[in-house]
Amino acid sequence: MRIFITGGSGCIGHYIADLLIKNTNHELFFLVRNPSKVKFDYNYRSGINIIEDNLTNILAYKDILNTINIAILIATCWGGEVESYQINVEANINLINCLNKKNCERIIYFSTASILDQKNQLLPQAGEIGTDYIKTKYQCFTQLEKHPLYPKIITVYPTLVFGGDEKKPSSHLSAGLKDLPKWFNLIRWFQADGGFHVIHGQDIATIIGYLVENGDKLDPSFERKLVLANSPLTVNQAIKEIGNYLNKKVYLQIPLPIWLANVFIKVFNIQMAKWDYFCLNYRYFTYDKYVNPQSFGLDYYVPNISKLLEISGV
């Protein structure tokens, strides 16, 4: 098959690129803005093509896109109202418009779990007060729902993503793990009400590899919308697991209720965006339905917090 990939120079993109290059014989087209950031071996075999350009210029590649069987859309812009809309909405829609409905078998589109509520439905606040990144992801998905190719789109919603090594760039979260042992000496004395999911880039790549080959065989209950996540964790569970890994005991913990956090915000005049304040009060970014490699009978790379800290060198 001929596969077109955007966002290959990022953390998730590197894991997916490495898997597709080494484990398949598909012809791959990587659109990358800055090839100097590419660490995967695009000379590993034949059939790997690097296209140096910005996603905003995607219409220049109509001829290639017309022949594509699978599009994997990872590229994103994290901030800037105009730039985020240009990349996260306009460019992705333009790319999909260039695909030939006869040749295109499926589109794997990366959104974010932040635009969903706990029942896996769209979260209105994400579209109203979300960051530029979150708001435009919300806007893009609502447009895709009306697109003629929507029946061929599999939307994936990553939760908190970790990953990175000497051959792959680190995710924003993994980059901060090196300071965890220092901060944990303070963190372990507190309790907080909240919940979340994590997932590693390698496990995301495993799922995408499965979807490339078997996306047409998805269980109908998934509705072609997949939250990518390990089992949910409460904040307090995470603190205990980290303490066990670091061999630092968690003794008496001081509860940090929301009302106290709100007092601190007012007393110290902490400036918070509407979305930040919403997240503080929403607290549980967990989902009823989610998938990980185990969902498809595949091997996990990072099933829990301890393994995540181990491979991260913490």
From TrEMBL:
Ranges for domain NAD-dependent epimerase/dehydratase: 3-217
Name this protein carries in UniProt: NAD-dependent epimerase/dehydratase
